[in-house]
Amino acid sequence: MDSLFLVLQFIFAVVLTIAVLLQKSSSIGLGAYSGSNESLFGAKGPAGFLAKFTFVVGVLFILNTLALSYAYNTQRSKSLIDSIDASALPSAPSEVPAAPESSAPAAPKAPANEQK
Hints:
Elements: H1 2-22, H2 31-34, H3 47-75
Helix pairs in contact: 1-3
Function: Involved in protein export. Participates in an early event of protein translocation.
GO cellular component, one term: plasma membrane
Subcellular location: Cell membrane
């Protein structure tokens, strides 16, 4: 089921991108540089259809995103820590080892103050 939602997500993303790119811009935008202000389909023919189609595909994209996140969340609701076998873990040492004795030489004693 997850793979179906994932494939649909890619399809909706591509279709939504194409639908947005086919629409006529409300401003001149980059058309001022090319000198063309005409749409691919003509003056105003498919403008209403493309706007409605983009809205519907956008809503389907959002619903599919929610369904995909729900499917992944329910499938992976078990934590990774819960799946670890406790007997396979190394046991903690029962005694804390004593600190080893220092092998460094002792510091020389300070000379006593002799008064004369």
